[in-house]
């Protein structure tokens, strides 16, 4: 999921440089959503991963 976030960030930067404002804003918002989902899943895996290890 982090790979998709990076792809959308790069897409937003390229679109922003080329002047496609709507595409850049859309890609940036998707990247932001995916990043926060990744962070939440990472924190949950840290919390629950330590709980179930012997």
UniProtKB/TrEMBL annotation:
The keyword Cell membrane applies. Keywords: Cell membrane, Membrane, Transmembrane, Transmembrane helix. InterPro entries: DUF1328. This is DUF1328 domain-containing protein. The keyword Repeat does not apply. HAMAP family: UPF0391. The chain crosses the membrane at residues 29-49. The lineage of its organism: Bacteria, Pseudomonadati, Bacteroidota, Flavobacteriia, Flavobacteriales.
